[in-house]
Structure formats: structure tokens, C-alpha cells
């Protein structure tokens, strides 16, 4: 199983769906663990009753059916599919509405879904907030730059309440998967894809309410991730390319030529003392 | 989130050849420098030595050539680059620089034997003169720009041309790959340049492709893939002019 997870981390992210399918076929006995531990781009389903789309993940799945956050009904239909308790369902409905607004503000489009459930140990509750945006020419892309572009964010929050002190302990694990492909004539095909994961824990007063607390945490996390992605996707990969092949016209302290010069200068200085 | 216990508890077992195909697919897609870790994982996931050996036997030759692996030649004369241009057969590769043939074990990624090449595998003395000077200039360039890259020049067309006035093609290959697990990164740069020299028309046509792959995996898995093609024709003055052009794509 660990070998399978290691493989998932090494395979090119653009092939991650195929990698996961292959592993599921090879290790069917581990399928539930594989599905819950590996991150895949979110799939979309349509709720006819509410005329809205929703996102599919392990947390709204029961067998092969998925529950819509709008109608709370399973599709394909399931007679006694798992449902959240009435209080949790109310929180879930509010959360879906609030995050739809958040999503529209930050993403100018896209699809969001929130699912709430009670964890196995019965203490507190957990929620996942999913956001998906397709930025390609065919999707919501406004500027027409990307041939393919997909942002998938999965935020899982575990909440434990301390009623005595009126404090909530929030543990947030977030993963953003980003895939970009451009193919303009001048520079040829270029694709960058992958995911990063971060965690954050916080103790917040229960007064503003769970939705407000979770919302603020997620907003903060998404901003951090967005900046992190910038640095990692563009900064780090550029660094890797530079170590592979230096641009010869540029003199920098870390380049081969630069290092040789540095050594020479230091030697000269040492000798002249 | 809950799993239903259903009749699907008896899982459908994959056929052997399907398992081998999957193992092979994973090996072929291993990122630069990570094939041995991927191989270890595939071995565990297939849970059958026999199937793993089969997958490795099929995958490694393809992987090694696609990724232009370079192997140390046992007689100490340097490294041999495994590419499609130097491939004589499944386990023998030509090294034009030393005019020898290397026999390799793909799965172990080791060169087991080196022997001098047959005359029929080598270009004529006339073409070799050009190949040699391109190679010499190339090695200096690669040393400056790539720090650890490997390169080779093959004659891929017209190797029997004996005198001036004919046409022949040299293929220049550069490959640099790096893997630094403690920095969580790896990558590979491959350049393939085909230079078609027509002495009658006094032209050299250059066709090049550069492919880059970069992988960064601290707290995640980000991979970049890009490639770019170039095309140009220059008039022959001195062959080194062509190489100077190749420096600044």
C-alpha cells in the first residue's frame, strides 16, 4: 500500500487518473484506502431538482452513489443512503450558500460544494469544502490564454468543541491541484501540473459561529496556497531548469562561470594579503 | 464515505499480461532519476517476481533510450549515450566518439562489454572529419552550459559519402538530467539537432527539438513538461558557424 502511494507521488500529475485506475485494478482489496488517500481532480454531477452542479468526493459517496449538497438526495438513487443529522444538514446548507458567494467573488465562476459529517469517534464534526474551476478556452477562461487549465481545491476541516471555554479547535488540511497547458505557436507546448498540500490548526472562540470561523481559515489558507503555488510552480521549476542548463549570457553568483570567478577573486585576495 | 459490503467482495483478478502492461507503464513514466524507486514500488505492487521481471524486461530498454541514459564503459574510455540514433540492436549501441560498440544490460542499467565498431557501422573518413570537429566544439559547449551533461554526434545519413559535393546528415544529441532527492527535485533536458549538410548547394539545414522536464516534490508533486522546435537554413562557410548558431536558440 505504501508502495502504491509512493508511485502516485512520482507519476506525472497529468497521468494521475490513469495511475490511480491502474493501482485500483492491481490492488482491489485496497481500493477504499487508495481512493481516500489520493487526490484526484474533482468530478462534476448535476442536480436536476435544483438546476445546479455539485462536486463528487469520498465524503458524499455511499457505495457508487453521490449525494447532492442542494437536495441531499443520492444519485443514482439510494433508499437509505447515509445522511447527516438535521443540525449538521442545516450547517451544510448554510455553508453551501456562503461558499457559493465566496467562490463567485474569488473565482468568477467555477463550482463549489460543502459536505458535513460526524466523524467515527462521534466527537465534534468534520466538513469538506470543494471548489473547482475550469479555466480553459472551453470553460470559464476569460482571457483565452490557456488551452487547458484546472484548479481543484479540497479543504477538510475537523472541528472539536470545548463548550466550557467556548472555544473551537479547527484542524484544516488543504490540497490544491493545478494543471496548466498552453500551446502558443512561438514557444511550443508547455504544461505544468501538480498539487500541493498544507495544514493549519487554530483555536478560535465559538462566538462568531462555525461557518464564520471555518470560512476565515479557508480564505487564509487559499491565499497562502495561491502564493505558494506561484513560488513552487514557477519559481522552483525555473530553478530546476536553470540547474540543468545555464543561460550562457547571464552571469550570476550561482552559475558555473560565476563560481569559478568567485574562487579566483577569493584566491587573489588571500594571496595579496 | 461508508463502503457497502456487497457481492463484489470476490474481486476480479487481472490477467498476467494486463498486470505486466501496468507494471511496464509505471516504469516508462518514472520521472528523471527515479526509475529505481519506481521499480521497487512496482515490484511490491505486482506482488509477483516473475511478472515484475517481465515488465522490467519490456520497459527498461524503452525507458533507457527515451531518457537517453548514459552508462560508464568498462574500459574506462568514458560514457556511452543510449539513443535511438546509435542503436544497432536491442542491446548494442554505437559510441561514435570512441568508435566502439557497447553491449548493455538494460534492466541493470550497466554496460557489460565494449568492443571496437565494425567499419560498416562507422561513417567514411571524409564524413568522420566533420563529425569529429562538430563533436569537439560540442563537448566544449556542453561543458560550459550543462555541467555534467552528456552529448554525442552521430552520422545518420550519407555515411558513405567519400568526397565533397554530396549530402550527409549529422545528428547532435545533448542530454542532461539531474536528481537531488534532498532538495526534492529532478529534471531532464534533451536537445536533438539534425544538421543536413548539402555541399553541392552549400547549405546546412538545421532542425532542432529541445524537451525539458522538471519535477519538484516537496509537500506535493509538481511537474513541468515543455518542448520547442526550431528550423533554419544557413549557408556553409565553416562548419563551426553552424554550431555557434545552435548556442543561442
UniProtKB/TrEMBL annotation, chain A:
Family according to the record: Belongs to the F-actin-capping protein beta subunit family.
Name of the protein in its database record: F-actin-capping protein subunit beta
Entry annotated with the keyword Disulfide bond: no
Keyword terms: Acetylation, Actin capping, Actin-binding, Cytoplasm, Cytoskeleton
Subunit comment: Heterodimer of an alpha and a beta subunit.
Record-linked PANTHER family: F-ACTIN-CAPPING PROTEIN SUBUNIT BETA, F-ACTIN-CAPPING PROTEIN SUBUNIT BETA ISOFORMS 1 AND 2
Known function: F-actin-capping proteins bind in a Ca(2+)-independent manner to the fast growing ends of actin filaments (barbed end) thereby blocking the exchange of subunits at these ends. Unlike other capping proteins (such as gelsolin and severin), these proteins do not sever actin filaments.
Compartments (UniProt record): Cytoplasm, Cytoskeleton
Domain of life of the organism encoding this protein: Eukaryota
Gene3D superfamilies hit by this protein: 1.20.58.570, F-actin capping protein, beta subunit (3.90.1150.210)
PROSITE patterns linked to this entry: F_ACTIN_CAPPING_BETA
GO biological process, one term: actin cytoskeleton organization
GO cellular component terms, A-Z: cytoplasm; F-actin capping protein complex
MF terms (GO), sorted A to Z: actin filament binding
Automatic annotation (TrEMBL), chain B:
Gene Ontology CC, one term: cortical cytoskeleton
Keyword Acetylation among record annotations: no
GO biological process: actin cytoskeleton organization; barbed-end actin filament capping
Keyword Magnesium: no
Name of one Pfam family that matches: F-actin_cap_A
Gene3D superfamilies for this protein: F-actin capping protein, alpha subunit, F-actin capping protein, beta subunit
One of the record's GO molecular function terms: actin filament binding
Keywords: Actin capping, Actin-binding
Segment forming the signal sequence: none
InterPro entries with a match to the protein in the record: CapZ_alpha, CapZ_alpha/beta, CapZ_alpha/beta_2, CapZ_alpha_1, F-actin_cap_asu_CS
Subunit structure: Heterodimer of an alpha and a beta subunit.
Family label: Belongs to the F-actin-capping protein alpha subunit family.
Annotated function: F-actin-capping proteins bind in a Ca(2+)-independent manner to the fast growing ends of actin filaments (barbed end) thereby blocking the exchange of subunits at these ends. Unlike other capping proteins (such as gelsolin and severin), these proteins do not sever actin filaments.
Record's protein name: F-actin-capping protein subunit alpha
Organism: Ceratodon purpureus
Lineage: Eukaryota, Viridiplantae, Streptophyta, Embryophyta, Bryophyta
Amino acid at each position: 500500500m505504501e508502495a502504491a502511494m509512493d508511485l502516485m507521488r512520482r507519476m506525472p500529475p497529468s497521468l494521475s487518473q490513469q495511475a490511480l485506475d491502474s493501482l485500483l485494478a492491481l490492488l482491489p482489496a485496497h481500493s477504499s484506502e487508495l481512493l481516500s488517500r489520493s487526490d484526484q481532480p474533482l468530478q462534476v454531477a448535476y442536480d436536476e431538482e435544483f438546476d445546479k452542479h455539485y462536486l463528487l468526493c469520498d465524503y458524499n459517496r455511499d457505495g457508487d452513489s453521490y449525494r447532492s449538497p442542494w437536495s441531499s438526495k443520492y444519485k443514482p438513487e439510494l433508499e437509505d443512503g447515509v445522511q447527516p443529522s438535521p443540525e449538521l444538514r442545516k450547517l451544510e446548507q448554510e455553508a453551501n450558500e456562503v461558499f457559493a458567494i465566496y467562490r463567485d467573488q474569488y473565482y468568477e465562476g467555477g463550482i463549489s460544494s460543502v459536505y458535513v459529517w460526524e466523524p467515527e469517534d462521534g466527537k465534534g464534526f468534520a466538513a469538506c469544502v470543494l471548489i473547482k474551476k475550469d479555466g480553459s478556452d472551453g470553460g470559464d477562461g476569460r482571457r483565452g490564454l490557456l488551452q487547458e487549465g484546472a484548479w481543484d481545491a479540497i479543504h477538510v476541516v475537523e472541528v472539536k468543541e470545548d463548550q466550557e471555554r467556548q472555544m473551537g479547535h479547527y484542524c484544516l488540511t488543504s490540497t490544491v491541484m493545478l494543471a496548466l497547458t498552453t500551446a502558443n505557436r512561438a514557444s511550443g507546448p508547455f504544461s505544468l501540473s501538480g498539487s500541493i498540500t498544507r495544514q493549519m490548526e487554530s483555536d478560535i472562540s465559538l462566538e462568531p459561529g462555525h461557518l464564520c470561523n471555518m470560512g476565515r481559515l479557508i480564505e487564509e489558507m487559499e491565499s497562502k496556497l495561491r502564493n505558494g503555488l506561484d513560488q513552487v510552480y514557477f519559481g522552483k521549476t525555473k530553478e530546476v531548469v536553470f540547474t540543468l542548463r545555464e543561460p550562457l549570457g547571464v552571469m550570476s553568483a550561482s552559475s558555473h562561470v560565476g563560481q569559478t570567478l568567485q574562487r579566483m577573486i577569493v584566491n587573489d585576495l588571500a594571496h595579496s594579503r | 464515505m461508508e463502503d457497502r459490503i456487497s457481492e463484489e467482495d470476490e474481486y476480479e483478478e487481472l490477467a498476467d499480461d494486463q498486470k505486466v502492461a501496468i507494471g511496464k507503464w509505471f516504469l516508462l513514466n518514472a520521472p528523471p532519476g527515479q526509475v529505481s524507486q519506481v521499480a521497487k514500488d512496482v515490484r511490491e505492487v505486482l506482488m509477483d517476481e516473475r511478472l515484475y521481471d517481465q515488465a522490467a524486461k519490456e520497459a527498461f530498454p524503452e525507458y533507457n533510450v527515451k531518457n537517453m541514459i548514459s552508462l560508464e564503459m568498462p574500459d574506462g574510455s568514458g560514457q556511452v549515450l543510449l539513443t535511438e540514433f546509435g542503436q544497432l540492436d536491442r542491446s548494442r549501441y554505437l559510441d561514435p566518439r570512441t568508435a566502439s560498440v557497447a553491449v548493455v544490460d538494460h534492466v541493470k542499467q550497466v554496460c557489460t562489454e565494449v568492443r571496437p565498431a565494425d567499419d560498416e557501422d562507422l561513417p567514411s573518413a571524409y564524413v568522420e572529419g566533420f563529425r569529429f570537429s562538430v563533436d569537439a566544439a560540442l563537448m566544449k559547449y556542453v561543458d560550459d552550459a550543462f555541467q555534467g551533461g552528456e552529448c554525442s554526434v552521430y552520422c545518420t545519413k550519407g555515411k558513405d559519402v567519400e568526397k565533397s559535393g554530396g549530402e550527409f546528415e549529422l545528428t547532435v544529441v545533448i542530454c542532461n538530467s539531474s536528481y537531488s532527492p534532498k532538495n526534492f527535485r529532478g529534471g531532464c533536458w534533451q536537445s536533438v539537432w539534425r544538421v543536413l549538410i548539402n555541399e553541392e548547394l552549400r547549405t546546412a539545414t538545421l532542425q532542432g527539438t529541445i524537451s525539458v522536464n522538471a519535477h519538484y516534490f516537496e509537500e506535493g508533486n509538481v511537474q513541468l513538461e515543455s518542448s520547442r522546435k526550431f528550423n533554419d537554413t544557413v549557408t556553409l562557410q565553416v562548419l563551426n558557424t553552424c554550431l555557434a548558431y545552435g548556442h543561442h536558440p
